[in-house]
Amino acid sequence: MIVQLDSGRITPASGAQPERRLFTTASTRQLWSIVTPIPVGSRVTPGFEHLRANLAGYALEVAVLTNQESGDAFNAITLAAIDALLGAPTLDYLGLYSARRDTARMNLARSARSAATARDSTSGPSLALGKYAARFADAWYGDVDIALEGRGLVMRFSHTPQLVGDMVHWQHDSFLVRWRDRELRADAYATFSLNPDGSIDRLKMAPASDDVDFSFDFQDLLLLPTAKVSAP
Length: 232
Description:
By secondary structure, the chain is α+β, with helices and mostly antiparallel strands. It has helices at 2-5, 25-31, 71-86, 93-118; strands at 9-10, 20-21, 36-37, 57-58, 134-138, 142-149, 152-157, 164-171, 174-179, 188-194, 200-207, 222-228. Helix 3 (71-86) packs antiparallel against helix 4 (93-118).
């Protein structure tokens, strides 16, 4: 980062080797110039109207370093630094992002209440729980195992050890998968489709809320049964 900010120059500590360059100032300008233009949208988050862009794009190198998972953390730091560089008025980005976070949490809670209200809690699964226990396979991801353990179903993703979850009946042939690693914040619905003879045709999944990170891509899985799975 220091080399980037100093246009490719390395300044050694006192008494060490002489100053040298990793790349030229011309290369620095190229690294910091837009290479891939991005269309500028008209939608602006309330409170952030001043950030409506006139242009946007990817350069060859952009780095923001924080020890926070939250995008709000590095966005607040980045925008404050940009404003300082441009001499723009100082804004309370921490307050703006905190307000946006609180609004998002309220919306998520409202959505969760709506989903719980719409749920047919009196319905039961079509099959005995043991009938759902099987190995399923997605052509892209691979195997996902569902086993009857004790009095409930447990889902395990073969290539992702963290994805081990208890399947709580939601309604009809849909279950809510609650991952045992609660830090994942990625609970998902798992819905079975049945054949006319009562056997399982396929299993589809979907994020249980808008709070689930898009990178999990549960909705893209098409899980087809391949074999029965017994309890471990």
